[in-house]
Known about the structure:
The protein is α/β, with parallel strands linked by helices and 406 residues long. It has helices spanning 17-23, 33-50, 64-73, 89-100, 118-127, 151-160, 211-217, 229-237, 247-263, 265-285, 313-324, 350-366, 375-386, and strands spanning 56-62, 81-86, 104-109, 133-139, 141-142, 147-148, 166-170, 189-193, 203-209, 289-290, 302-306, 329-330, 339-343.
Amino acid sequence: MSDSNPVFIPGPTNLPESVRRAIDLPTIDHRSPAFAEAMPKLFAGLRSIFATTSPHIFVFPSTGTGGWEATIANTLSQGDKVLACRHGVFSDKWIRMCEAFGLIVDVIECDWRGPADPALIEAALRADQNQSIKAVLATHNETATGVRSDLKAIREAIDRAGHNALFFVDGVSSIASMDFQMDAWGIDAAVTGSQKGFMMPAGLAIVAVSEKAIDAGKTATLPRFFFDFKQMGQMTHQGGFPYTPPMQLLAGLQHSIDLLLTEGLDAVFSRHFKMGEGVRQAVSAWNLSLCCEDLQYASDTVTTIMVPEGFNADRLVEHAYSRYGMSFGAGLGKLAGQAFRIGHLGMLSEAQALSGLAVIEMAMRDLDYPIVSGSGVAAAEEWYRSALNMDAVRPVITAATCEDVA
């Protein structure tokens, strides 16, 4: 019966039933007028989600990794230099992709329990007197660690340094779940995928690009064909696709956008904060530690939890699945065996969140973790009750102070 349980991995997420129905379509002629007529609405909705007026939005049959590749392949040339902070598995993966494409990566090593450091980025850019750094790469929400970086602060660091580098952002586990402002934060390329905040199956990479990045692409020489912005942009502008599009996924994406915009993005962001803070309250009640050491950077889509010394987090995740039929995220990279992850993004209610906390609590008790039975669930219950009518988006509330909210 495990397929009836919600998943608590940080993507792919649980699918709303209405999204599943929207995807369940017969074959549609992708060269028909009906398809062409649907495209403008789809891209208008995506511009609202990304908070941009840019006409340059591309949807590829792929995942977020393909979106990373599309971004660098369309804007850079072999031998170009980029600057990136490494503070988790996914920021590291983007770095390794750049290196595979023959780019030179200046890597800033950051603490995995913290965000990308704007001060170190500014210092590196100030030292780049020849403006040889072509792009700054930032991972908004590091899915491995549950730490959110401050994109506005990074943009301000780039500006203070007086540097002309492009600003590229991995927003795979943040866009459509957490506050994201492409234009206001001066982002030149933003990447996400269908399987996170859009509450869809994996299969779509979505990339929004600024005019500055499009201009950079005019002299870029890295190879691209499937991920060619120019070809894709010309075809979608005409209401078509340069190759066979995933029609059912595009229909689901349109429905997901409708759901998000009908709820209202501020409400979506607030809901994710509420879900995430409830999980953080449970962790505090268990007397366990978050990977994220400074709660102002705690992710609202995934919480990474350190296990006590002498315990193996991988065994905990396996036990929760084999005994109770529920999936949680294992620790990745240097956190393997030391941490587990609870995803709380996309379609998730208080009732579902409490079921996940109850199951992982039972699994910890089965494995003799030093926790008090029911403590985490009770703490989350109290938070969800107190936060029921709270409308603010990410108010200044932490696990240490939320008991003051009534």
